[in-house]
Amino acid sequence: MKIFEETKLGNISLKNRLWRSATWLGMADDDGFVTDAVKEQYKRLSEGGVGNVIVEFTNILPEERTYPGILSISADKHVDKLKELADIIHSNNANAFIQVGYGGSTTSMPTEGRIVWGPSAVKNPTNGFAPVEMTHDDIKSVIEGMAKAALRARKVGFDGVQIHAAHGYLFSQFLSPYFNKRTDEYGGSIENRGRIILESFEAMKAMAGEDFPVLIKMHCDDEWGENGLTVQESLWLSIELEKRGVDAIEFSGGNIDPESGNSALKPRILKQERQSYYKRQVSKIAEQLTIPIILVGGNRNLGIMEEILNDSNISYFSLSRTLHSEPDLPNKWMNNPEKKPRCVACNKCLAPGGNICIIDRKRKK
In which domain, by residue range, is 179 found? Predict the structure, then answer.
């Protein structure tokens, strides 16, 4: 098997096994609408040769503002601009997916004057902010918001939608014993902590249609000891999602506690042995699944990816920082499989006004 070969995800043709993992650009306007700057970035990405583009984390509720410049799919008024975005991606022979979710206390936006929900009122280790513990009605609102977002994504013309259940946002917090101290049916055992995700998935399929692909991004391992989701718990949730018809799982990992040293954005990964850094945990989970598995995290060497492809049940590979820096990297790999990415995993692409590679930012000055 090769990276640059055509496969199928259900009825969708995928021109290669490379995915652009959803990556926040910070270029939407204050109301979450697609801007010309957003369209230009996705034009470059889809022209660059990646087979499948997952549009960045997009808000599902009007009052939710996770980050500055974040996209929204929370109301019908956003549909026309999002359609333009999907059309741009499709025009360059790439598939277009969109990631949706609720951020919660993992936010850099001011929290004064708005209600921010969480599974429990536990302070977030990144900002010290404690959210409001969700009631059952609040949970139903999020589930309904996810379902409506999936329907809008279908109407817009996206090829599928991805649930964001990773990286310390709301669904990831429900899975974590650190954040989730609930004693009702949404807390305690993994069966309870995963309930909101399973109910959201079922609601999305029911509203958007069983034939509309719903994917999920989640952790293989929080790397956080007793505070986090374990590999065994991740496997349980993956099996339950597979039973319900999830179309693919993209596995990330790590946690948001700055003191743990186990962020998903691992630096200093130029050496090959440090790359594709979740392959061990994900391979273990993938062995017991039949659905397509997408590996994200430090994928930057074509030879390593093809080795994983042929030695495990992992079928696809997702790239974030490397495509952020070099959108045409897939095209370059097709011409030269030994090509090394420009990205050095310095994690300096995040900046006010739009997240772009620090090399490009310096050139603009």
Answer: 7-364
pLDDT digits (tens, 9 = 90+) for 306-353: 999 999 999 999 999 999 999 999 999 999 999 999 999 999 988 777
pLDDT digits (tens, 9 = 90+) for 14-27: 999 999 999 999 99
Asked if residues 24 and 105 have their Cβ atoms less than 8 Å apart, the reply is: no
Q: What percent of the chain has pLDDT over 70?
A: 99
CATH number for position 81: 3.20.20.70
Alpha-carbon distance 264 to 255, whole Å? 7
What is the β-pairing status of strands 52-59 and 71-72?
Answer: parallel
129: nearest Cα among 146, 100, 108: 108
Task: Count up the domains in the chain and report the number.
Answer: 1
329 in a domain, yes or no? Answer: yes
Cα–chain center distance at 256? 15
Question: Tokens 């206390």, residue?
Answer: 105
Kindly report, residue by residue over 126-151, the tens digit of the pLDDT. Answer: 999 999 999 999 999 999 999 999 99
Q: Token pair of 343, please?
A: 């990205």
Residue 330 in tokens: 């897939």
Which helix (H) or strand (E) element contains residue 62? none
Helix spans in the chain (H): 36-47, 79-91, 136-156, 170-175, 190-193, 195-208, 231-244, 279-286, 302-311, 321-325, 329-335, 358-364
**Is 42 a domain residue?**
yes
Question: Is residue 123 in a domain?
Answer: yes
